[in-house]
Amino acid sequence: MFLNESQKKQLKKEFDMEPWTFEQHLGEAVFIPSGCSHQVRNIQSCIKVALDFVAPESVEEYLRLTQEIRRLPEDHRFSEDRLEIKKIVMHAASSAIREAKAQLSCK
Known about the structure:
mainly alpha; extended
C-alpha cells in the first residue's frame, strides 16, 4: 500500500508521524536513518539493496522487539525474525573475542 497525500496528512494529524517520500533516480543511493518511516514506489524496474545496521546501544530494544514478533500468529507476514538480532550479537561477540585474543598475543 502506498499512501497518498491525504493519507499522509491524516497519519501526521493522528499519530504525529510523517513518512519520507522522495524520487530516486538512476545512479542515486539513498540513506534512510534507523526508525525513519518511509515508503518507496518504483517507477521503473529496479533492484533494492538494503543493509541493516544495529548500533550496540539498540541491542536491548531489538531483543524486546524480537520477543514481540514471536507472539504474532505463525501465518502473520511479519512473524519471522528478519533482523536475526541474536545472530548479530553472537557474531559481534565472537569477533570481539578474536580481536582481544589477537591484541593480547601481540604483547
